[in-house]
Amino acid sequence: MAALSNLKITNHQITLVDQVEEKLLDYFRVMKLKPGDSIPKEQELADALGVGRSVLREALSRLRMFGLVETRTRRGMILTEPSILGGMKRVILPRILGDEALFDLLGFRVALEIGICELVYNNLNDKHLEDLENIVNRGVVFNYGEYTPVSEYEFHTKLYEITGNKTIMEFQEVIRPVSVFLKEKFKAYFLPVNMEIEKTGKRVTHMDLLDLLKKKDKKGFSQAMVKHFAPYYSFLRKKNHSNGNN
Amino acid sequence: MAALSNLKITNHQITLVDQVEEKLLDYFRVMKLKPGDSIPKEQELADALGVGRSVLREALSRLRMFGLVETRTRRGMILTEPSILGGMKRVILPRILGDEALFDLLGFRVALEIGICELVYNNLNDKHLEDLENIVNRGVVFNYGEYTPVSEYEFHTKLYEITGNKTIMEFQEVIRPVSVFLKEKFKAYFLPVNMEIEKTGKRVTHMDLLDLLKKKDKKGFSQAMVKHFAPYYSFLRKKNHSNGNN
DNA sequence: TTATCCTATTTGTCTGACAAATATAAAATA
DNA sequence: TATTTTATATTTGTCAGACAAATAGGATAA
User: Fold this and answer.
1) Minimum mean pLDDT among A239-243, B67-71, B217-221: which range?
2) Is the CB of B51 under 7 A from strand D?
3) What is the pLDDT of residues A105-118, one digit of tens each?
4) Closest Cα of chain B to A188: distance in Å?
5) What is the C-alpha to C-alpha distance for residues B231 and B200, in angstroms, rounded to an integer?
6) Protein-contacted positions of strand C (CB under 7 Å)
7) What is B5-79's CATH number?
């Protein structure tokens, strides 16, 4: 049923701070507080929860981190609208995350990028096409038909931007280091794949994608995007990569 | 260029805790620490950074929250592999997030769900088909051809599961409250849309999706998924929804 | 050699203190 | 009286010290 119930097997014992954090979030929920609403001062909260101010502050520190609460001296604390991916940003440290997590993130990114095709197509206007054209025209290919990281970045960032979805845009920024890191770490895999694609002329270029958008060919665009990401799909399908240090 | 550079305009002044948090993350990066590696004890870190132990602990509390560090009494602290979406889980509080953020999350979810089609298709095996069949067979429709939340949940969760991507699965769990909340809040929008779909016989059912998977019709499956989510797309296209309180 | 106990160390928590900032009240000025 | 300035009180940010609980590692006993 709940396939993910094993995610919360926290080995380390639950500390007071954890409990207070939970209690605070519950408090916000129960009181139906909204951004802008003020919450009691530290001492009051600490007393109400029966903990020291330091414990309360450690819990508050967590909530402050993703902008769920804001405090100004003497003015008390107010609830604010949190940054959804703010927390994620901090823990995306490719050198600390294990390969499995990194692969999952790459798969996540690729899936999302395919998934936005519909949104891109729905939102597309002439200004977007013009911008994309400029990006494609100044795009630089550096070896075996691969785009430079900057060109690649500009083009796909523009696609995200066209969706008009800020969370998706932010996600792209957060997850970029992972793609860059994996491409570098496993270049022994990607290089020959790219050479093969180049040789067989099967590459889907940014220009191709743009042309399909210009032609208002929705299905063609979606399918071309899938092809464009083919190297990643084949990479992810082979789960047993060596460490890339050969 | 950097379309998101305005994300960090933090109004509130940067506190010592924020700085220490940054310094700690830098320290991990620079020292190339990996999960399992131990880090200096609190007092040493505090002294090294020239701050009190309480400030250091507030920063550590944040890192502990996503499982980036773990501490055991007397045994010191060790780095651990963080939970990528752990932070996100905490701030997805539909009643606190604004409508724009909620819409963005819904769009994110729909895009991702469309995007996983390729991964689902790639990973699909007979056991998966059997499981899906069971889920579809015991699925319950409750009004105007709409599935009950449980049936809907089971089917789509299974699709996520087939991808074999833990981050994607976890994401589904995190974001579910948003879909549920929005569907309830804006049922005045969704109800007539669903009635219309039912009347015109254009509904793509879970059975339809399963049949396409059985037939190994990849393109058909992807396109059917887009149709299956049509109500959401049309909902998101109309940005100026009233508060749903009419 | 193995099992048990002791001690020192480290984290978790509490309390009290003070500086900095500022909302509010009080006082001074036009 | 209305407005500006000043003073006070309050609240957060930070530090320091204390102690309990847990336990690693050594000392001691079997």
Assistant:
1) A239-243
2) yes
3) 999 999 999 999 99
4) 23
5) 14
6) 8-16, 20-23
7) 1.10.10.10
Q: State whether the beta carbon of A80 lies below 7 angstroms from any atom of strand D.
A: no
Instruction: Work out the widest C-alpha separation in chain B, in whole angstroms.
Output: 71
Q: What is the pLDDT of residue B30?
A: 93
Report the Cα A242 to chain-centroid distance in Å: 25
Contacts of A33 in chain B (CB under 8 A): 96
Nearest CA in chain A to B107: A165
In chain A, residues with a C-beta closer than 8 Å to the C-beta of B226 are: 118
Residue at the smallest CA–C1' distance to nucleotide C11: B73
Report the top-level CATH class of B87-237: mainly alpha
Tokens 């819409």, residue? B103
Q: Does domain A88-237 have CATH number 3.20.20.60?
A: no
3-state SS class at B204:
coil
Residues A10-16, mean pLDDT to the nearest whole number: 70
Pull the structure tokens for residue A54.
């330091």
Strands A69-72 vs A76-79: parallel, antiparallel or unpaired: antiparallel
**Which sequence spans correspond to the domains of chain A?**
5-79, 88-237
Q: Minimal Cα distance from B226: which residue of A?
A: A118
CA of residue A58 to C1' of nucleotide C14, angstroms: 14
Q: What is the pLDDT of residue B216?
A: 94
